[in-house]
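Thread: Newbie trying to understand structure tokens

Hi all, I'm a second-year student working on a class project, and my supervisor (Dr. K.) asked me to get a predicted structure for one chain before our next meeting. I've only ever worked with sequences, so writing a 3D structure as a token string is new to me. If someone could post the tokens and maybe explain what I'm looking at, I'd be very grateful. Here's the chain:
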Amino acid sequence: MAANQTTTAPNTEAEAILSLLTDRDIPKMVAFDARMRTLISIASLTALGDARVLEGVIASGLKTGVKPLEMREAMVQAMAYSGLPSTIRAQDVLADVLKREGLEFPAEKSATVTDTTRFDDGLKLQVGIFGQAIINGHKAAKPDERALTVDLLTGYCFGDTYTRTGLTLKERELLTFVVITSLGGCEPQVKAHAAGNIAVGHTRRELIDAIIVMLPFIGFPKSLNALTMVNEAAPAGK
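---
Reply by user tm_fold:
Sure, no problem. This is what the structure looks like when written as tokens:
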């Protein structure tokens, strides 16, 4: 997938292994369709700050019918977790691939909130996913921490991001799990969002499948750490 889409000289052995994993092996191991595998890959590569492999994933995704708007939103979902620069960088790659294919970067606006509604709308979604613990956390927040843990987390991370159109809430929560897993060193947040995914209707199997899709990009240490968090949040057989 990646090897024949890059614009620089390929590392043929590494890219051959990547293609075998992403195009042959992993699709047979997971239940996700090509669209969801593409969105998971885009979210993961956005978090990693990759451009070269991302270019190939985008090109392949377009061929299988993944919409540019959906790709853009998978990148946007990463912005509150891996930072806005990584989303902007990924969107630049998307724009370049679309231009090469004679397509326009999606101009549709996906925001649904305003400055006056973003906090309340974000809070509604937070509570819907994580329950009363969010309200309790707001009440317990220290005054000098509220800007970070209440105002920005609720208004920006959830209000500006989760409320957008283009992807479902269920898809956005899965991509959040993907982004945080890809970052590494965020095990408490991985566990929290593993539980959040269960709350919105994903299964333990789907969380493990998402890790499998990410594996070629993030490697085994991050993947196995994420699996440990899934086992804690959604133990097998329960």
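A couple of things are worth pointing out once you decode it. The chain has one domain: 12-110+164-233. Residues 1-7 have pLDDT under 50 and may be disordered. Feel free to ask follow-ups in this thread.
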